[in-house]
Amino acid sequence: MSSRFLFCCLALGLGTAFAAAPAFRQADPTTTPGRQVAPFRLNDVRDNKLVDLADSKGYKATVVLFLGTECPINNDYLPELSRLHADYAEKGVRFVAVNSNSQDSLARVAEHARRHKIPFPVVKDPGNKVADDFQARRTPEAFVLSPALRILYQGRIDDQFGYEYRRPGRPHRRDLAQALDEVLAGKPVSVARTEVAGCFIGRVRTVRTEGKVTFTRDISRILQKNCQECHRPGQIGPMPLFEYEDVVAWGETIREVVSDNRMPPWYADPKFGKWANDRRLSKEEKDLLLAWIDEGMPRGNPADLPAPRQFPKEWQIGEPDVVLTMPKAFEVPAETPKGGVPYKYFTVPTNFTEDRWIQAAEARPGAPEVVHHIIIFILAPGEVFRPDAPGAVLTGTAPGEMPLVLPPGQAKKIPAGARLLFQMHYTPNGKAQSDRSSVALIFAKQPPKHRILTNPIHNRLFISRLLSIPPGADNHRIEASHTFREDVHLVAFMPHMHLRGKDFRYEAHYPDGRKEILLSVPRYNFNWQTLYRPEKPIALPKGTTLHCVAHFDNSDKNPQNPDPTERVYWGDQTWQEMMVGWIDYYRDNEKP
């Protein structure tokens, strides 16, 4: 299962990215409004027209936005910035975007501005001189200036997007819009400074050649092992982490996300279970990476570099045997209609004349920015669609989820003449898009020893009535279970909840009375839905009950909560809730 992003580029085009530069002055969180900034005269990257900040004649205020091309939160805000420009430009407010990233070339900035149809000038800040004068730290960061170029507001655009949350619908507080309304009304800005969630600006900096820890000898190997699978063009990571220059430009952001344990993303409690796909850095790797950044990120001897890690070029699973695509595109609206976009279903014939065993499968959205998830179901000839039936699910994709890749000897079965049913969940993002998604399949080269089945544990008919989360409840408990009627081995877990999901736990209740926690996710993240594969299949004897326990936070302490005053029920949309303990397993006595 997979997600998509597209990133690249370092060459500055306007100077040497790693020339000596003054030390970066960190923005003072206690800075008071009223500080004056110097005017700049730079050209729009698209049409080369001069943007003169000093020429404020006819403007009641100027909004200067520090933007990048790769930061996910930055790009999440681009539709809202277009809406703000449309609302305030006619009221006498000028908008200007500044790109100060050393890793963003002039051509890359121009392409990004065109692709996202940014409706106001975008300029390149060589040597991050403008960012230093403004004391800007992150992308996206907003400044509201008076006609005399005094800072009236500095901070975030609003509170819709954060490091680990995305509020559905509208933000709770529109900080930039509120500041502009107050300025236009001739009032002082009531909240003149807010903290910004985003990526650090990639400033030019002096770097060293040698040190105790070097990129070529030490850091490159950590990145190959732990990061590059996602941080490469076309994959989920928001920047490529191959070349020394790319890594150095993102050094401060890397320090922050590693220190905060946001990256690599992994949410399983280490006290329970060992996992084949554990993404965490070891303590030694983490200490080495942070020490390298602290020492100035020395490059080292190029001869110490390991051979580049090789990745498939088109599909993460490798060269597919067949690719099946939705028969027609679905037009995703720009705005979410009342009640949301209902799940859409598209049937695709396989035209298989014999049973096929699937070793790997990868679902790929045609319009990844608006596809929240895909689930590919198998419809055998003559069967009625039953999404909860064992063997009905082939694969899918959701934020943070990787493709289905089974080890030798394990496979999923698509019967001869079967059809695939694409379940599509679309989430409009302010820009109308056309989606035509696909799935790639790789056939098992040998008859498998075990047929893998995917099953949801949710007691749906019961939970759909029981799942009623009261307004303001911050630790609402829901349970579900499944008892196996045969000996089985578990090979994967994937807990699923929505925006109010707080934690999730799988427990095995054995026939002899023993209980064991198989997986505990104490901090569930809806925006990074992880499949957990144990190092070895977990044996569950006949009569074992797999018990799932989840808690939900419907209070105002949950930054993702759409509305803490509402009672929440079971439903498909993200502002509703689910409680599903997905598992992959095989039956010991089943002969494929």
Which characteristics define this entry?
31 strands, 4 domains, six-stranded mixed β-sheet, Jelly Rolls, 592 residues, 15% helix, Glutaredoxin
Description:
This protein is α+β, with helices and mostly antiparallel strands and 592 residues long. It has 4 domains: 41-200, Glutaredoxin (3-Layer(aba) Sandwich); 215-304, no CATH class; 314-450, Jelly Rolls; 452-592, Jelly Rolls, CATH 2.60.120. Helix content is 15%, strand content 27%. The chain is built from 10 helices and 31 strands. Strands 10, 13, 16, 17, 20 and 21 form a 6-stranded mixed sheet that branches. The protein has a 5-stranded mixed sheet with strand order 5-4-3-7-8. The protein has a 4-stranded antiparallel sheet with strand order 12-18-14-15, with no helix packed on it. The longest helix has 12 residues, at 215-226.
- Our estimate of the beta-strand percent is 25-35%
CATH level-4 homologous superfamily of the largest domain: Glutaredoxin
Low-confidence stretches: 1-30
CATH architecture of the largest domain: 3-Layer(aba) Sandwich
Radius of gyration computed on alpha carbons: 26 Å
**Helix proportion of residues, in percent?**
10-25%
**Do you know the CATH topology of the largest domain?**
Glutaredoxin
What's the level 1 CATH class of the largest domain? Alpha Beta
Global mean pLDDT = 90
Number of helices: 10
Q: Gap between N and C termini, in Å? A: 24 Å
What coarse outline follows from CA principal-axis ratios? Answer: globular
Main β-sheet: number of strands, strand sense, barrel status? 6 strands, mixed
User: Structural class, from helix and strand content?
Assistant: alpha+beta
Q: Kindly state the number of beta strands.
A: 31
Number of domains: 4
